[in-house]
Every structure is written in C-alpha cells, then in structure tokens.
Amino acid sequence: MSRIAIKICGLSTPETLDAAVKHGASHVGFVHFAKSPRHVAAERLTQLAARVPDHVMKVGVVVNADDAAIEMLVQSARLDALQLHGDEAPARLAAIRARFPALKLWKAVPVKTAADIAAAAPYADVADLILFDAKTPDHADLPGGMGLRFDWTLLAEYRASGPWGLSGGLDPANVAEAIRITRAPLVDVSSGVEVKPGMKDVDKIAAFCKAALS
C-alpha cells in the first residue's frame, strides 16, 4: 500500500500549521465558513497559506459558497483544492470546474448508512476526490467538524472509481484502526486533534500523523 495521505483541517495558527507540515501532513485545510469555530478570514488565510511549502496541498473548505467567495479564496490563498462541504449538487461542481479549471474539487458526502455511500456516485465524474464524513444531526449548525464518526465497516467493501478519503471522528487513538478497516487512501482530521473547538494541539497533530503513517 502506498503512503497514506493526511489532511489536517481547520488550521488557524502558524504554530499548528507548521506542526502539520513538520509531522508529515500531505494536505492542510483552512475553513472559510463564518459559523464554524475554525473559520479563517480571508486576510489571515492568505498569511497562513503563504507558509505552506509547495509539496503540501492547500485545501479551502467552504459551505455552499458563491462564485465571488470562491474567486476571492482562490486568488488570495492560491488554493490547490476546494472542499465543498454543503449540499452542492453535481451540477454546481460542474459549474465551478468550468469557471476554475485549475482547481481540484473535493466533495464531502455525509454518511450514516450504506445508502449514503451509494449516493456519492453522481459526484464521481465532477469531483476530483470524494470525502466520506459522518452525517451530523439535522438540527446542527455545522455540516462537519463535530467529532462524530460513522460505521467504518460500511466502507470495507467500497470500490472507488476515483480518489477518496475518510473523515469524521478520527483521532490519534483510532486512525490506525480506521485505515485498517476501510483501507482509505486519505484520512482527514479536525476536532480529533483539538483541545477545544477551533484550537488545535501540536502534540495531538504529531500523534495523529505518527499513528496514520505507522
């Protein structure tokens, strides 16, 4: 099996960003969504993105963003990929791709049952990567980043038609098990390396990367 890809998401300080890069993250994620405790305003995002070395991919995370917001993020942060974490339809991804052809598109798909995994199929032709995340409660203000996990065995027999990743409830203690069960090529963590919502911990980042890569 090739080296696992690791995305540390919701980074908001130079110290935690540097820790993610130092300990082997292949991707770093910046959330631009005002309701999130991990929200990073455009000017700060630009500053953080400038610290990221070329071999690490910069991923912007948005929820139902319009073209103007996407344009601003792409220009200011020089993003490599855009993670769509709302209820964007395949047609919306196609429209974004047409306007921003150089930008990789990731689509987060909320999962609770096997049917949710099957529902990702329409995105296969328009997304560069499908990210399976735990479905949040209907009343929740956030579409992710709540520390929830789903039944990983639902992905045990998954045969992807393209790149994909696993998110939702991952932490240093369970990521190795999650990789073993799902054989996910990419793992994505946010709340699992925090001391409180929005505050990442450099030691937890180091422990997560070590566990995922071991």
UniProtKB/TrEMBL annotation:
<dbReference type="InterPro" id="IPR044643">
    <property type="entry name" value="TrpF_fam"/>
</dbReference>
<dbReference type="GO" id="GO:0000162">
    <property type="term" value="P:L-tryptophan biosynthetic process"/>
</dbReference>
<comment type="pathway">
    <text>Amino-acid biosynthesis; L-tryptophan biosynthesis; L-tryptophan from chorismate: step 3/5.</text>
</comment>
<dbReference type="InterPro" id="IPR001240">
    <property type="entry name" value="PRAI_dom"/>
</dbReference>
<dbReference type="GO" id="GO:0004640">
    <property type="term" value="F:phosphoribosylanthranilate isomerase activity"/>
</dbReference>
<feature type="domain" description="N-(5'phosphoribosyl) anthranilate isomerase (PRAI)">
    <location>
        <begin position="6"/>
        <end position="210"/>
    </location>
</feature>
<keyword id="KW-0822">Tryptophan biosynthesis</keyword>
<dbReference type="InterPro" id="IPR011060">
    <property type="entry name" value="RibuloseP-bd_barrel"/>
</dbReference>
<dbReference type="Pfam" id="PF00697">
    <property type="entry name" value="PRAI"/>
</dbReference>
<dbReference type="InterPro" id="IPR013785">
    <property type="entry name" value="Aldolase_TIM"/>
</dbReference>
<comment type="similarity">
    <text>Belongs to the TrpF family.</text>
</comment>
<protein>
    <recommendedName>
        <fullName>N-(5'-phosphoribosyl)anthranilate isomerase</fullName>
        <ecNumber>5.3.1.24</ecNumber>
    </recommendedName>
</protein>
<keyword id="KW-0057">Aromatic amino acid biosynthesis</keyword>
<keyword id="KW-0413">Isomerase</keyword>
<keyword id="KW-0028">Amino-acid biosynthesis</keyword>
